[in-house]
Amino acid sequence: MSSGALSPKDATEEVFKTGLHHLHEPTHLTFIKNVYGGLLFGYCGLFSLIVSKGSPGLESSAPGIVRLLQGMTFPAGLILVYFVGAELFTGYPMWCTMIALSRQGKPNQYVRSLIFSWLGNLVGTLVVAGLFTYFTESMSSEPYRSGLVSQITEDIVEAQWHVIFLKAIACGHLVALAMFVGTQNQDGISKALGLYIPFVVSTTARYPHTVEYMYLGLAGMMHGAPLDVGGFLWKCMLPITLGNSVGGGLFVGAYKWWVYLYCENGQEKVDDMLRLDGEME
What we know:
The protein has helices at about 10-25, 25-55, 55-60, 65-75, 75-85, 90-100, 105-135, 145-155, 160-185, 190-205, 210-220, 230-265, 265-280. It is an all-alpha fold. Helix 2 runs antiparallel to helix 4. About 45% of the residues are buried. The mean pLDDT is about 95.
């Protein structure tokens, strides 16, 4: 293992400590950091739409190129969020799962963290979708508007609920893995690549990310997509939020905890982490 990266075991311990920190973080700080994360993700969502929807001829002649363009541009948001210390909802299921498996924290702490991180991201993406996309007319001209509406129609309106949910599980897995690898790497370039590569896979495959589709769904509704508020919550946000939570919590949070904190290190290492939790009380 290079000196520039932590071992999987050490990285798991760092992620565990991060989870403890977020569990005890003041509510207003959780909310504000997630608002900021939503803002950054929204800006990069706009960037990805402009790049990927600006050549409508490619949609029919080379659709894979269009997906790759969107896949390569949207993940810039995750790098920005990580580097400036903002937050996204999709990290919380991983953290909360690891802490819950250690039987720490109170139920209200988990509920508070999950709810206020989600609401913060929603507020941030709403600001970008409304003030900086709709009112600036950044997506009002063709082919951008029709490209956005077409994507929301295809990915959400015409898709079945269980399909959206299953795709969201894969996204939750890949994005939580990206955050884990970002923690594992110590220098800036390696962190950026670790955050970037798994999310490129996810966005190119159009596996839906909660905060990504907060922005896309809100912007799509404002530009005429056949989706109302009820449909946005039921058909878009609910399956994606649940799927991301299962993917990140089970395939990264539970897996890393079981392999590196429970089985490999034994209960002694877990107990050391729990003493840290007691010091935070």
